[in-house]
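Task: fold both queries, return tokens.
Query 1:
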Amino acid sequence: MPSILVVDDYQSERFIMADPLIKEGYDVSQAVDGQDGLKKLKEKSFDMVITDLKMPKMNGIELLREAKRLHPHIVVILITAYGTLDEAVEAMKEGAYDFIKKPIDPDELKIKVKKALEQLRMIDEREYFKEEIKGYLGEMVGQSKPMRQIQESISTIAKSDVPVLIRGENGVGKELVARAIHEQSSRKGPFVAVALSAIPETLIESELFGHEKGAFTGASFRRIGRFELASSGSLFLDEIGEISPSLQIKLLRVLQEKEFQRIGGTVTLKTEARIIAATNQDLEERIREGRFREDLYYRLNVFPIYVLPLRERKEDIPLLARHFIKKYSLRLGKEIEDISDEAIRLLCDYDWPGNIRELENIIQRAIITSKGDVITSEGISLGGVKVKKEASSFEEAVEGIISDFDFNREDLPLWEQIMSALAVRMVERCGEKAKAAQMLGISKPTLYHWLRKAQIEL
């Protein structure tokens, strides 16, 4: 439950404020004056402060200023028996939520506290949503038949509330599809994304369902979980195939019952969050292996959408490349107007193991290094290999990469031979795959892709 600090230099007044709030289930602490209140604010985090205005040592306005300095989103309600209009105006300017006159009506206090905490929750949601959309890559781009089919599927399913399962390789844009579904829906709440594979197993449950203060070691304050944040919006669960069997059971219950409890809590909370899950795993195979629950699979797979890898819809590459040029030129302080036909052909000949994410990174690098207003093939660096415009220079570059590497895969296109040779040589040089991937500016899965092409055991 929310934590509240009550500050008053009279014990009887503290009791009048604290008692009805404790009976409502709030976690209430008390301070005997402003300085004691400030000490407690430095020791722990509170959701709200209710403080008397007139106190010795430090008055309510001074405590309000310090509370806002320490915790900018904290809600502060001031109490006084001598309230004047000037004091009220000053308190509001300093960030007070409300101003209540004594004698205190317990019912009025409870109503104001409830409304203030609801405002705090809305602030939390807005701030969270701001952080989430910072990573938003932009609207979906593509006119290939597969992309048109996906756009039709999005329009069909957006107005419904049924779960959606988006499948496809890493980097194909599964989160973009999920966001498009949310944006075309009538849902008023936020789009909340959770990268399940990026969260330690011990923290996933807290991340999804939230926890109460004291629920476990280190839980010094209440945390709102993702299901609660997305209650009237959409919850995107990325890499759903990676979660443990125990969490699968809990997630199945939420999907069935539409309710959950915070860790350490006793109150059952309802959720109307629309579930959109995504995976790059073969869930059917994982079910056969006993690693994924079949009943959860059917709960999630009500409306499946498969996003093809970029190598299977290369007609979208010119549109995507120009989209990223337009998006990043201004941000990077460059005036890039277009990309040459030769550079487009180069991009279309590439296999794109990293899919759209890899294309986006390559276009950003090309923008940074471009010396004119058009990106040419000289500025295209695929997997760390910068291509020369002249054929002779290109051949020399190829020869330099694979000259001292025993690599005989003439069945592969030239670009795949280059990338595979480069991946092997970088691993040999760095001694470890993670560092090699970092040096090449690619992900570990992309590095593994090229090593497999070179028939290197992983």
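Query 1 returned. Query 2:
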Amino acid sequence: MGIEAVGELVRFAVRTRLVDIPDDITEFVKGLILKTVAGMLAGSSMPAGRKVAEFVREVGGLPEVGVIGCGLRVPLWQAVFADAFLAHASELEDDRFRSGTSWDITVVPVILPLAEKLKLSGEDIVEASAVGLEVLSRTSQFFPQGHMGLTVVPGSVGPAATAARALRLDEGQTRSAFGLAMSGVPVSYLNFGTDAHYFETALQSLNGLVAAELSKHGMSSNPDIVAYLARLLGEDRVDAKKIVDGLGVQWQLRDIWVKKYPCCFYTHRYIDALLGVMKEEDIPSGQIESVTVHVAEGAAEICNRPEPQSLGDLQFSFHHALAAAMLDKDVNFSHFTEDKIPEPRFKEARSKVKVVIHPEWASTFAMDTPAHIVVRLSGGRELLREKRYPLGSREEPLTKVEFRRLFHKFVSGILEPQQAEYAADALSNLEQLTKEEVENFIKTITVVDTFV
């Protein structure tokens, strides 16, 4: 059954057309592309993003395609690597958590440079993105977050599906691309909060592209993803039927949660809960005596960082993210700069946040258990809130207007207002763009240089 399931997945990747994709899925895919472009633009202005931009600038090579937000033209492989790094450096990746992790930050950075090089239409971009996101969602659904200290396994098959589609590979070539990409780099929990975290996911994108290009040149492989995963996890934990059940009808990519704050996703439901109770009860930050965060033992513990010492620590700290929400009733890039580490008001607010870890809540997947917070006010009153799903999940979806609002929030100060509105319009109507309109759009987001 394993290899047969892979064959069905390959046929889906090659044959699916825009008319086969439900309208709501098309809209959601466009929303994810919009968010990821915002993340790449924002990532280009981050310290880690500047490092990778300088790296590809120094390596040089043929000026084939642009790098988003960097004012650079470099070879295709370098652009894909850099764009993927930038997409994650902003900490704006959109993730699925209720089963094995899948996300958009390794798929979208593959298709945009390919679209520029191959002169693809907007419809081509939407099709390739939808296919890649769905393949990634279905192949990565079995690997639990944090198993063996890793996540997103296999992480490069989805990007390979996107690249294969853009390159117009046939079923045999796409099958080979899946096998070549299968054992690509996983994501290590040890690297959360460091630049290596972004490096690993950028390699997943690059590996997918290289796998597709090698298969185009006749490279062979064994694409039995089911057997590969069964040997890692045990045969009882991998069900080939789940890879293809409802394929093309029940879209697993829709289970991806949309990030609204540039920090680790493990903090988001707690931020939503705190902002919600502050709004409902009209609570000024000065009245909050403490915020107690109750988390399950396991992956979320990586955000138990009461005294952050670096930018990465800030982005992976319950204490800092909730301090920002407490103080400013929002969480944005301005809160994640190294000058916030010693700032007295943030130090005081962070000291109000307590994390309680519950071993009895441990589960296979990191966010199977609801997020619990207790907000204690200066008068002794306690407010309890529980949030199972974040705003931006399938259960609490964002509207088109909310997607656009996030885009403008994250590109403010990077794109001029007119450029931002043009880009948002283009991506909101992506499937209607001609090849020439795609070329103009990509030029807009690649010629801007955040180094200036």
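Both queries returned. Flag for query 2: The mean pLDDT is 95.
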